[in-house]
Write a structure and sequence with these properties.
3-stranded mixed β-sheet, about 160 residues, mainly beta, single chain
């Protein structure tokens, strides 16, 4: 079965490896931009074991909301051609040919040096929405620990 993630704001550094299953106690709020649920004011995290979440493959139209079932909060895998790279090198935009741009962000460091406009990439991350210049856009949040999957890919 599929499972969703929920962003947890915490200072707890003993959570363990990515994909670790945890039990969290805290206040649930709704992100004003994305509409995603998130846990703030966390006051208890307990490791319960290793997770086994596998990404679901989606087209760019299915990232976030707006086409078919919502994928908000799911771990997804998608692909596309790099259309632009932010001047601060902290995000980039891909398109799979459907003219549905997806902003890729949150990987914790600059865009890899090999990447340029026109590169074809396959990525795994959390399906979301983000604010970009006052607009709400489809977004793939690629955690720093998963960024090694953003490598050149040949169709």
């Amino acid at each position: 079965g599929r499972t969703s993630e929920m962003k947890v704001y915490t200072t707890n550094t003993s959570i363990g490896n990515p994909m670790t299953t945890v039990r969290v106690v805290g206040h649930i709020s709704t992100n004003a931009v994305s509409g995603e649920k998130e846990i703030t004011d966390e006051y208890g995290i307990q490791n319960t074991g290793a997770g086994s979440v596998k990404p679901v493959g989606v087209i760019n139209k299915s990232v976030g909301v707006g086409y078919g079932l919502s994928t908000m909060g799911l771990l997804v895998k998608t692909f596309g051609t790099v259309k632009s790279i932010a001047t601060d090198k902290k995000s980039f935009v891909i398109d799979d040919g459907s003219k549905t741009p997806v902003k890729v962000t949150d990987f914790g460091y600059d865009v890899p040096g090999w990447m340029q406009v026109g590169s074809y990439v396959q990525l795994t991350g959390v399906s979301s929405l983000a604010s970009d210049g006052g607009n709400t856009v489809k977004c793939l949040r690629v955690p720093q620990w998963y960024c090694d999957t953003s490598v050149p890919w040949q169709p």
